[in-house]
Amino acid sequence: SQQGEEDPQALSIQEGENATMNCSYKTSINNLQWYRQNSGRGLVHLILIRSNEREKHSGRLRVTLDTSKKSSSLLITASRAADTASYFCATDGDYGQNFVFGPGTRLSVLP
Amino acid sequence: ETGVTQSPTHLIKTRGQQVTLRCSSQSGHNTVSWYQQALGQGPQFIFQYYREEENGRGNFPPRFSGLQFPNYSSELNVNALELDDSALYLCASSPGELVGETQYFGPGTRLLVL
């Protein structure tokens, strides 16, 4: 079963608005990562947050982690049409499982 | 660009055949992982190699096998192809052995099994 579950499954917003995606996971983790995928191509790493961190920023991205609730959120501020993509959270699972990805959130940013 | 390349980009096979997919990792990256991504789903971990030894495997049958070579290239082999093997296959490299490091993905190979 998948460790991470993103919410919502799909999100459609206007350019300039903020987009928030959530990720929930089941077991304890060492870190959590967010990736972006454009049109079924390779994944691009966005940000890594460790279990002892609560918030991390990278440009227009803000990630939070709440280990007590086993959840994380990704906020994209001032979205652009180029942000249209699928966004995945990934967690390090038990030994032998490596990364476990959720099913993703499909974000559409309309011009 | 991540510096990770995969070949071929697309492939069509028939059920029962065998296929070999190739990946070239970033120079200096000792770990390579392979993933299967069905349409509309997240990537599923197949296995990971570190310094040419398999050191982690997901819930995939033995007909999925791999090799890693000293020159940072690797292969994913799938025997006795089934229709459900149709998917995007991604490889990803990372510098060390630790689980959960940042991974650098290639563009993928899209496999269609008829």
Notable traits:
heterodimer; A: mainly beta; 6-stranded mixed β-sheet; 5-stranded antiparallel β-sheet; B: mainly beta; 7-stranded mixed β-sheet; 4-stranded antiparallel β-sheet; 11 strands
Structure summary:
The complex is a heterodimer of chains A (111) and B (114). Chain A has 111 residues and is mainly β.
Can you put this structure into words, describing what you see?
The complex is a heterodimer of chains A (111) and B (114). Chain A is 0% helix and 56% strand. Chain A is mostly beta strands and 111 residues long. In chain A, strands 2, 4, 5, 9, 10 and 11 form a six-stranded mixed beta sheet that branches. In chain A, 36% of the residues are buried. Chain B has 114 residues and is mainly β. In chain B, the strands form two sheets. In chain B, strands 2, 4, 5, 6, 9, 10 and 11 form a seven-stranded mixed beta sheet that branches. The A-B interface holds A 2, 4, 29-31, 33, 35, 40-45, 48, 88, 91-93, 95-104 and B 2, 4, 33, 35, 37, 39-45, 48, 56-58, 88, 90, 92, 99-100, 102-108, 110.
What's the helix count of chain A?
Answer: 0
Kindly, what is the distance between the CA atoms of the first and last residues of chain A, rounded to a whole number of angstroms? 37 Å
The largest pleated sheet of chain B is described as: 7 strands, mixed
How would you sum up the major sheet of chain A?
6 strands, mixed
Number of strands of chain A: 11
**Which percent band covers the strand fraction of chain B?**
over 45%
The oligomeric state of the chains shown is: heterodimer
Order of helices and strands of chain A: EEEEEEEEEEE
Number of DSSP helices of chain B?
A: 0
- How large is the radius of gyration of chain B? 13 Å
Q: Biggest interface, and residues per chain? A: A-B, 28 and 29 residues
| Span of the ends, CA to CA of chain B | 32 Å
Mean pLDDT score of chain B: 93
The gyration radius over C-alpha positions of chain A equals 13 Å
Tally of DSSP β-strands of chain B? 11
Structural class call of chain A reads mainly beta
